[in-house]
Amino acid sequence: MKILFVNMFYNEEGGAQKSTKFLAEQLVKEGHEVFAYSNDAIDSDIEEVINGVKVFRRRTPFFSLNYIFSTKKNLAKHFFYKIFETYNLFAKRKFINIIEEVQPDIVHFNIISGMSLSIVKEAKKRNIRTVWTLRDYWLEYPWGEKDIFLIKLLNRIYRPFVKKSLRHLDIVTAPSAFTLNNFINKGFINPSIQKCVVVENAVLFSKSKLENIIKQKQERERNTQKTNFLFVGSILELKGIFNLVAAFKKLTNPSISLRIVGKGKDVVKLKKEIEDDPRIKYLGFQDTETLYETYQNSDVLVVPSAWDEPFGRVVIEGNANGLPVITSNRGGLPEIVQTVGGGEIFSDEEEDALYSILNKFVEMKNYNAYYQCILDNIDIYSIEKQSKKFTDLYLGKQI
C-alpha cells in the first residue's frame, strides 16, 4: 500500500509527533510505501527521506507554526494566523500537489493545524481511503480553550464547518476510549457513518532489555533507601507540575529526589518554585536517547496532569523503561494504568491525594508487583500490534 501521513510536525519532539513517526517507519519495515506531509518548513519547502519515509515539509503562506506556538504574540497577528489555521487555500493546493504526485491508497490525518480542513474532502473526492487519528482537542477548540467570550464565540462559529469536514472520513481512531467518546458524544463524528475505533499509541522497546532494566532497578532498591521521582512533559500549569512540586515538598525525607524534564512557557516560574529545595532538579529538554537514560536511572514516573490528556504517551514510555507510574485520573491516563497495572492513580480533585501516593512509594519496600505487571502487559502497546491494527483498518478488515 501507499500511505500518506499528514501531521503538522514530522519529528520526535512531542507525543503526537512520535506516534506518527514511529508508525510510519514501522509500516516501511513491513514493506509499504510511506510518505509524510508536514507544514513545519520555515523558509522554503523541503523534501527528504527519513528512515525510508519520504517527507514533504511545506511552508504555508499566511500561517506560521513557529509563531502560533511562540510564547510572545502580537494579538492582531495571532488573530490573522488563526483565521488561516482551519482554512488556507494555499495549504490545500500544496496538499493536492502532493497527493497527485504520490497517488496514495490511504491518507492518514493526525493534527493538521494550519493545513486547512478542506484537505479531507480533497482526499475523499479522489476515492482515497481517509483515516483520522484524534490526538488532541484542536478540532473542538480551533481558537483555543480560554474562557473568553470572543474565543468561545469563534469556536462556536467554526464547529459546524469542522463537523462537515469530518463527514468525509472513512475511519476515525483515537488512542483512548475517553478521547473517542468525547468527540462522538459532542457530534463531531458519527459511528453510523464512520468506523470509530480505539487504537492505542505504541512505544518502541525490547522485552529482553526491559527485563535487564528491571533487574538493575530491583538491585538498586535492595541497596539504597533513596527514591528518585521523575516528571517528563511540557512545563505548563495544566500538566500539574506545580501541584507535583508542592506535594513533593511536603515529603520530609532528605534522601529522595525529584527530577524534571521538559520545556514550556512556565519554566521561569518553575525555577523559582524549586530554588529553595535542593532535592528538586530541573534538567531541561532532553533528546530521546538522553531521556531514556533518565528513565532508567529513576524509580517512579509521575504524570500529575490537571487536564484531560487524550492519551498520555509518557506513561507507556515510563513503563517500557521499567518505571512504575503515578497518574492523575484525567482523560486517557487511567486507561493505561488499568490496562498495564504498572502504577497507581490519584484523584486530581482530592487535596493531599498526590502527596499521599508519593509517600506510599517512598515507604514501599519494593515495586516488584508493578514490575511484574509491566512485564506481563506492556506488549499491548508494541509498535507491531499497533501497526497490525492500522493495516487491517486500511484494508477494511475487522479488528
Report on this structure:
By secondary structure, the protein is α/β, with parallel strands linked by helices. Helix content is 43%, strand content 16%. The chain has helices spanning 15-29, 65-68, 75-86, 89-102, 118-124, 149-166, 177-185, 207-223, 241-249, 267-274, 288-296, 313-320, 333-340, 353-363, 368-377, 383-394, and strands at residues 2-6, 33-38, 46-50, 53-57, 106-109, 129-133, 171-174, 195-198, 228-232, 257-261, 280-284, 300-303, 325-328, 343-346. The strands form 2 sheets. Strands 3-4-2-1-5-6-7-8 form an 8-stranded mixed sheet, sandwiched between helices. A 6-stranded parallel sheet has the order 11-10-9-12-13-14, sandwiched between helices. Helix 1 links the parallel strand 1 (2-6) and strand 2. Helix 1 packs across helix 16 and helix 4 runs parallel beside helix 5 (118-124). It is globular. The mean pLDDT is 94.
Task: Briefly characterize the structure.
This protein is of the alpha/beta class and about 400 residues long. Helices cover about 45% and strands about 15% of the residues.
